[in-house]
C-alpha cells in the first residue's frame, strides 16, 4: 500500500530540488558542464548523492530541468492575456519577456550552452526544445487567439511571434552575450517594448 507524501515532506523535497538547481547552475557556469559532476553538485547543494540521483538520475536530466525552470515566466503560472486588445496584450507579453530575459540565470544559461556547444550539442537542443520553443509557442497561440477574435490579420502567427520577440531580445538580451556591462535602464527597455508593440499593431491590427 502506498501513501501520499505529507505536505511537510513535499515542501522539503521542493526545497532540496531548488537547492540542487541553484548549485548546478553555478557549478556549470564556473567549471563547465563537462567538469561538473553530480557528486560535486550534491555537495554544493547540501544534499546526499542518493537524494540528487532520486530527482535527477543523469546530468542531462538536471540540465533539462534548469532549462525548463529558467524559461518559465514569472512563477510559471501566468496566463496569456485574453484576446480582444492586441496592443494591451502585446505590451503585457513584452514586459513579461523583458523580465524573463533580464534574470541573471537566463544569461548564465546561454553562456553555458555557448561554451559547451562544440562538445555537448545536446545542451543547445535542450535549450531550444525545452526552453525557447515552449515559450515561443505560448506567444504564437496568443496571436492565433487574436486572429480568431478578428482583431489582427496575419497569415503566419509563428513568423509574427518571431518578429515581436526578436525586436525585444535583440536590444534587451543578445548584446549581453558580447558586452558584459550591457545593462539598459528601465525606461529604455519600456521604450523598446512600446515600439515593438507599435510596429506589430501597425503591421497586423485590423483597421
Automatic annotation (TrEMBL):
DNA-binding region: 37-56
The keyword Transcription appears for this protein: yes
Domain HTH tetR-type: 14-74
Entry-linked Pfam families: TetR_C_7 (PF14246), TetR_N (PF00440)
PROSITE patterns, per database record: HTH_TETR_2
Gene3D superfamilies: Homeodomain-like (1.10.10.60), Tetracycline Repressor, domain 2 (1.10.357.10)
UniProt entry keywords in alphabetical sequence: DNA-binding, Transcription, Transcription regulation
GO biological process per UniProt: negative regulation of DNA-templated transcription
Molecular-function GO terms, alphabetical: DNA-binding transcription factor activity; transcription cis-regulatory region binding
Keyword Transcription regulation recorded: yes
PANTHER family in the cross-refs: HTH-TYPE TRANSCRIPTIONAL DUAL REGULATOR CECR (PTHR30055:SF146), HTH-TYPE TRANSCRIPTIONAL REGULATOR RUTR (PTHR30055)
Protein name: TetR family transcriptional regulator
